[in-house]
Amino acid sequence: MSGDKPRTNGSADQGDVEMNDSTTPTKNGKGKDGDEEMTVVVPPLKNGKATDSAAKDGEKTEEATPVDPREKAIQEIKANFALLERAVTQFDPRFSLRVLRSIPSVRSQLTADVLATVIMDTYVRPTPTAFALLQAVKDDASFPRERVEEWSKKKDTPQSQKTTSKEVLPEIDVYLSILVQVHLYERKAIETGAQFSDGLVNHLRSLNRRTIDPLAARVYFYYSLFYEVTAPAPPSPVAAVVGIRKTLLDALRTATLRKDQDIQASVTTLLLRNYLSTSHINQADLLISHTAFPPTAANNQIARYLYYLGRIRAIQLSYTEAHEHLIGATRKSPTTYKASGFYQASTKLLIVVELLMGDIPDRAIFRQPSLEKALQPYLQLVQAVSTGDVIGFQNLVQKYNSAFRADNTYTLILRLRQNVIKTGIRMMSLSYARISLRDMCLRLGLDSEESAEYIKGFMKSKDIGDIYSTREPGDAFHERIQACLALHDESVKAMRFPMNQHRLELKNAQEARERERELAKEIVDGEMDDDDTPGGDFEGL
């Protein structure tokens, strides 16, 4: 070993490493002549990792390799097929709901190429359902026409029958149809999506499978969504949404008979949204009175139902009921930033209803991160109403006219004008003991004196005097006495005693006295000794 060439220390394949004389200190202070050579043992590296920098760079390159989003979307869609099969075999709708919840994750990656690849891999041989799905997305630029043509030339041979061990489930057909609906809606292919949804809804009416109900509810949602943006759009009385009401009512009747709560809840909210879009409030109210919303519906459907119910009651001037429904809708709606659209809409309507009730919303509502920017016009509206600024209120309505109309709160906000006038008059009464109607209109910025027609000629504030010189304290004291007397009378009436119980006690006492007299008489006559008495000694007698 002494004649071998020394090697560098730290190589990966070394065990014992020799150190030469020029780099190794001498042992026991001796010179290098005649000294023994010292052997240093280097322990192996942990987990067998190499220290070569090139190897490390190679590993980092492999780990940093990006995943193709197209392949990821295809694999995620195919993975959902297994969940749908488990939903059918185990008859458990939770697996179908998991599939529906995964749609937002693949929504951004849905293209005609991805859909066509999944469809051709799922349907090994061409079928009418597969052709219908491909026909809906064929106009997209990414549609693989050559591969589809090759796939469509496949014939139903014995080999193809062997490769397909089982038929594709109807649940998978509907799931792929939903993905096509999502893709068409994202591409704004409204006419194609409406036609495709019409055929899909007609196909669903021929199926009677409970495992397909959660998927069918989502189909009806996109079916209604396509017609809402189809020209002529609401609130036109001849809007396209009017034409689908019969289909939705038929679906609601069928779902009620089959006790299909998923479709029943979804179609009920879609019908209410349909009626409200064209301002058919009476028909929406009749639908609510003649149908029963399923109590076991999904949380998002309950929130939508409460929101539409609150809008209907607010239009009908039932502000208390509307406030209760909107409170429930805001509590059930998601508050995350990505899903804050519904929470913003319900909160905006809730603020307007509270103002119509004469209340001022809590300022903490406007400080929430998901609402701070969206509620900026409504914050200014609350400030104008609370201060009685009529001119500022009118300027706000004109400034945010388009925003209020988009939120469907414009007509309700116009009702707040009388509240603003009343608040301004109330604040003015603190400064003036008597003021004419004309001067009041000038200070409030009203157009004419008729705007405050409920005030006769002038407004006069009552001076605050000695309240104890009036009958008000005596009346309040009298009301308290009456309340106490009424409470006493109700307490006496609430007491219950057994019937004729006192007579029974008197009768028992009289019989006891008669027995005592007889016993005493017998003792006196000597007919009975003291020891024979059943009660013992009668010394007390």
Automatic annotation (TrEMBL):
Domain (PCI): residue spans on this chain: 303-482
Biased composition (Acidic residues): 525-541
Region Disordered, residue ranges: 1-69, 510-541
Assigned keywords, A-Z: Proteasome
Extent of Basic and acidic residues compositional bias: 54-69, 510-524
One Pfam family cited in the UniProt record for this chain: TPR_PSMD3_N
A molecular-function term among this protein's GO annotations: enzyme regulator activity
Top-rank lineage group of the source organism: Eukaryota
Membrane-spanning intervals of the chain: none
GO cellular component labels: proteasome regulatory particle, lid subcomplex
UniProt GO BP: regulation of protein catabolic process; ubiquitin-dependent protein catabolic process
Keyword Oxidoreductase: no
Family: Belongs to the proteasome subunit S3 family.
Name of this protein: Putative 26S proteasome regulatory subunit rpn3
Source organism of this protein record: Cyphellophora attinorum
Taxonomic placement: Eukaryota, Fungi, Dikarya, Ascomycota, Pezizomycotina
